[in-house]
Amino acid sequence: DICIYGGSSAGIVAGIQALKMGKSVTVIEPSGRIGGLSTGGLGYTDIGNKRAIGGMSLEFYERLGDHYGVEGGQWTFEPSAALSVYRDWIAETGLQVVYDQQQNRQQQHQRFLHRLHRAKL
């Protein structure tokens, strides 16, 4: 049903949510690593009012809390901890992730020009 290009935090969470809604989902990640900034080093963010965090974002922080043995969520974390949380989530839900697949922009551009040319005919 759904193909998500990009295995960032948003892509993974969107895929998991879509699965919960009964959709079939494939996430295509152009690199070999999921999680975007969360697994790439941004583990100390300015959260502000923690009570404003809900849904799957809150679940992510609660899972980080479980990872560190902290009740109520963990708001700062190591990239490896975030990666572990995402990998566990993917395994639990069965989310299909395809790694190391980049878009071929030249082929996309050629297809676009072909469609544009046909539309003018």
Topology:
Layout: E1 2-5, H1 9-20, E2 25-29, H2 36-40, H3 55-68, H4 79-93, E3 96-99, H5 105-120
Parallel strand pairs: 1-2, 2-3
Short description:
With about 120 residues, the protein is mostly helical.
Q: What is the string of SSEs from the N terminus onward?
A: EHEHHHEH
Helix count equals 5
Radius of gyration, taken over Cα atoms and rounded to an integer in Å: 18 Å
By helix and strand content, what is the structural category? mainly alpha
Number of strands: 3
Main sheet: strands, sense, barrel = 3 strands, parallel
Strand order of the largest sheet: 1-2-3
How would you classify the quaternary structure?
A: single chain
- Per DSSP, what share of the residues sits in E-state strands of 2 or more residues? 5-15%
Rough outline: elongated
Give a written overview of the molecule.
- The chain is mainly alpha-helical and 121 residues long.
- 51% of the residues lie in helices and 11% in strands.
- The protein has a three-stranded parallel beta sheet with strand order 1-2-3, with helices on one face.
- Strand 1 (2-5), helix 1 (9-20) and strand 2 form a beta-alpha-beta unit.
- The model has no long low-confidence stretch (mean pLDDT 90).
Characteristic key phrases:
121 residues; mainly alpha; elongated; 5 helices
